[in-house]
Each structure stands twice: as C-alpha cells, then as structure tokens.
Amino acid sequence: MVSKKDLASMYRKINERFFDGRLPTVSVRYSDDLIEEHADGIYTLDGEILIASYLRVSYGLTQIVLIHEMVHVELGDAYRGYPGDGGHGMRFQARLVELFNAGVYDNLL
After folding, report:
1. Which CATH number do you get for residue 20?
2. What is the C-alpha to C-alpha distance for residues 82 and 61, in angstroms, rounded to an integer?
3. Distance (Å, whole) CA 98 – CA 109
4. What is the pLDDT of residues 47-100, one digit of tens each?
5. Which helix (H) or strand (E) holds 41?
6. Tell me: the pLDDT tens digits for 3-20?
7. Domain boundaries, position 28
8. What Å distances lie between residue 21 and 1, 11, 52, CA to CA?
C-alpha cells in the first residue's frame, strides 16, 4: 500500500530528478471522490493533486497518475490546450514524451 507519506516522497523525487526541482511543493493525497469524476487523478484549482484511492494498492499506477498530474502543475493554470482536450493538447503530450524518453516510466509496471 502506498501511504500519503509515500506520495509526498514520490512527488519530491520525481520533481528533483525529472523537473529539476522547479515544481512548487503541492499537497498530494488520495481521494475517494474521484470515482464520481471518472478520473484516476486531478490537479485542482486549489493547487492540490488528488489520486484515486483505489490506486493505493499499486506503486507503479500511482506514480504514472502522479507524473501526469505533475505535468499539469508544470504547465500551470494558463495552459488550456484546445477546446475539448481538457488541457491535454500538444504541449502536454510533448512533455509526456520528453519525460518518457528521460526514463520517468522505467520499471513502473
């Protein structure tokens, strides 16, 4: 089981290694409320990352969702992408590819 303390540590380590420590410190926690959102994770307008609580059984899946939300943190609230893509446009996708190539997903699953 991945604890809240593990989440904070995971965020710090990924931030240091793959984002050069540039991301702000944000609260990261599990939430039961995301089932209603049909989401595995969200970056809230309050600057908090919520991860679906059913993922706490998997370190790898939790980290994959966390990385996704960390890209939202990096791009900031101003990045919206194109209408209808939920902030997952070309800049977002390009950043995920950069992180993939840097090895952020290695050995997760």
Report:
1. 3.30.2010.10
2. 27
3. 19
4. 899 999 999 999 999 999 999 999 999 998 767 666 667 778 888 999 999 999
5. strand 41-43
6. 989 999 999 999 999 999
7. 4-102
8. 26, 10, 25
